[in-house]
Amino acid sequence: MQSRSTISRLPLPKQPLLIHKLTPDPRTPTKTFREVLNTNPSIQRRARLLAPEAHFSFVSPFPAEFPYAIQYEEADAQRAIDAWLAAREPKNPQSPNEQLCKYTRDQPTKAVLLGVTEAVLRDCLPHLDVGDALDVVGTPALVLEPDTATETANGPRDDLIEVLSGQAVLMSEDFSPWALRYSGHQFGTFAGQLGDGRATTILVTAPPNEPDKVYELQLKGSGRTPFSRSADGLAVVRSSIREFLGSEAVHALGIPTTRALALISLPDLAVYRETEERAAILTRVAPSFLRIGSFEALSPPQNVFIFGGGQQPANWEALRILGEWVAGPVLRLPEMQEPGKAWGSALLLEVARRNARMAAGWQAYGYMNGVMNTDNISVLGLTIDYGPYSFMDAFDWYHITNHDDAEARYAYRSQPAAIIYALRALNNALAPLLGAEKEKGAAITAGWAENVDKDKIEEWRKVGLEFKDELERVAQDVMADEYGRLMKKRLALRRSESADEATLVRPLLDLMAKHKLDFHATFRVLTDFQPGMVPSTKSNGTSTVLDTFVERLLAQAPIPSGLDRSQATQDLREWLGIYARRIEREADAWDGDLNSQRTTAGRAANPRFVLRQWVLQEVIAAVEKDVVRGRRIMAKVLHMACNPFEPWGGENVSETEVGKLSAEEREERRFCGFGAKELLGFQCSCSS
Ligand code: AMP
Ligand code: MG
After folding, report:
1. Which of 406, 442, 572, 618 is the most core-located residue (most Cβ within 10 A)?
2. Closest C-alpha to ligand 1, atom 7
3. Is 197 a pocket residue for ligand 1 (Cβ < 6 Å)?
């Protein structure tokens, strides 16, 4: 049995793998961070451009209603604001271990634990003791009341709620929570400094059996940071539920993503969107939350003027430091093992490969991100930032998941192109560094661009941009390979044939699009297909079996009324004929019974449960109406999303036999259905 610690006693990683190698905001250095909290905490809450060399800013979580209700005389503003904030910042140090000290607030807020993900504990944090926090079903006890918070928060579960709700903050001389600085291209336009406006990394830890692997724990919705601009730094319950369930659903499909450890609501904290809502904090987990936009912040595009901010200066030294960090501990590129070896182009290509694999996963599983701005594209190739995302219902090449994406920039079909666009932005940001490395034939060193004139930088930039074609080729190749591999799996095929994409995959998708068949349900039914169902021209086999099978496929039209049954039947029979011959050609690749083996393999690659928009809406409504009941439903949906390939809800039980299922199984069966017509292909908005 592995020894486990409560969250505030988790050890920091042994290796110096903390982000502190990068450059903090000069106005909030770690060593004096607690002084900042006691004297002028407004530094952390005030929207401002960070110094050009800074990669991040130390900041403590601060979930509070915004605008802050501070009363002051104009002449006394600064002092009054700082005094008001200081009174609410974490103090009261307790020393649970020798590494981190837990600071608590005098005026905590009520926090309700809505869910904890067992799979994340298992995969990333096996050494974290959460007490009985996993038993969320119908447990009113998972609430930390303000009056008892500090006295009772000693048990593992209360400790967890306190830290993950931003009520308690873990700090030391060398460690404080932080928010990242980044910029980004939003819908094709450079937007200047963005940064973690509502996310704060509160802890870094390494699983004891894998000390090289680190995980950052990041709160999303935990209050303002220097990057919040005019916004509140908070998140609402509905969007947090979407991210909580969405990231685990994407992970379970084998697509790289940030993970979701826990979801907490703050029922006494109001958040103002279109209407008044309640606040929630999601804890997400990833080895790093750096994005392509992190590089763009240090090397902004040329001649782009930001409204009110003029042209943002580049900082070449900060670019080198970030690059070495990402090439080293984040991506662990082999180039970094050899001192002095150039790493810039290897970094660029590795980010390309990783994001290409991720995008192939999205395409193969009908996941649509909705906001593929470069600040939302991870350098690790993780799906990040679950805003207006969705999974495909009836297949549509042109589906737009984001209601506000009028130009269809991030439509399903455009996702691969949007990834290439983001990779080009990374190429642009790194270009001078790539050129300098190429000229030197070795890694650049400290001060590499000091006393270098503008013309030289431009000369390097030009050389660096010559990587563009290779970058695109690598990204396209990896995307095509990975997509081919995944679609082969979805069709339960063992070997690859070069014509598969053109003769099998694309025609199937076109057929689904033409007849508005459901993407996931069609694939799931196809796992029962057997080539013997297609009567051969030689034999006089009857086609009844095939007719029955085609009927089953036609039942995967979520809106049956619009279906042209005879045309769809003809198209499906034709395609199944091609599929049957393709399967037969590789029959020798399987040992044992071809049909049962293919069904087993197919089911492990095609989800029975898909986190559809209607399911999300139902969970959200349930949680908002009644926390205890809603929490039970959400735990069930999370469990299904984490195990999507199981035959949920008596999959093989016919409709006439449904009565024999338990109430629980009937509910699961319902969650595997298409849901209400209005929510099919539902587009969501950005408000979160
Ligand atoms: P997104 O479109 O969610 O990727 O957000 C774009 C930028 O806006 C990022 O810098 C976010 O941190 C920031 N942002 C989004 N919502 C909020 C909020 N409620 N408060 C502060 N910053 C926010
Ligand atoms: Mg974002």
Report:
1. 572
2. 194
3. yes
